[in-house]
């Protein structure tokens, strides 16, 4: 019984399922492929090793892959791909994108799964494909591709190895790793407000004040923006500062306070040429606030108060003059027209009678005259 058991141990039994493939190795050397079924080997010295792999796992990873590919007959079961350094492969399994393959030797089981392979020649750094969105949705793409996104309302300037090659519209873009150094600078094409606050400036009449300005601009030439300066908004801010100092330094305070609009126009004219060189379009330049020192504000308040008081006195004098002139005209009119004078006297008598307990009876002409004289 013991001898029978010992004899059975000298045989090796291996079962390979329908979706599996077996690789036979003798003393570490590949000897062949085992199809589905039950296989028995006489192996008294334990030199035979059978490795069974599932073909449902599409990608075969093995340390002797090159030997297996060279010596095994896998027609109808697998597809072998040998990629050069300038090649990549896109793999779809059951009509779903799976991964990108890099340079090297690859074996893909094509049964029982449906496998489709597309080999890509790396002629350009940018990867363009009809199914780019699907490919970029896979978590494996970052091993081989760099992703660049240009947001809505922006324009991207593309640099390859430090050289500008064009602009990018809003969207997603992919570039092969290792082919070139990729850099994209994005610029917002919408209107941008740039506030210049708290600028301390001395006027022509030696008054120090603080000024706040607002510049509205938009980028019209992103490529020019990227090539001329490193930070376009920072550069524009400095240019506006210098223009404000130059414009305010030639104006006296009264002129500055009375005509802020002309200052904005002067600033816009001074900055327009510079903005064009930066690839910008200046839409509006204006002065928001002019802030005076405390003592100067108090002095201006006193001047304003005195001016308003003088204006009020002038209005009062004009009203008094108008009243006197009206009385003078009335007196002249009454003196020149006795009948009108008589009617005026009668109106006065009527008012006196209405307000008191006096009764006036007018008879002869002399009596009425004496009543008027009494009044």
UniProtKB/TrEMBL annotation:
One of its GO terms (cellular component) is plasma membrane. Its main location: membrane. InterPro entries: Band-7_stomatin-like, Band_7, Band_7/SPFH_dom_sf, Stomatin_HflK_fam. SUPFAM superfamilies: Band 7/SPFH domain. Transmembrane segments: none annotated. Residues 145-304 form the Band domain. It is found in: Membrane. It comes from Isosphaera pallida (strain ATCC 43644 / DSM 9630 / IS1B). Gene3D superfamilies: Band 7 domain (3.30.479.30). This is SPFH domain, Band 7 family protein. Belongs to the band 7/mec-2 family. It is a single-pass membrane protein. PANTHER family: BAND 7 PROTEIN-RELATED, BLL5629 PROTEIN.
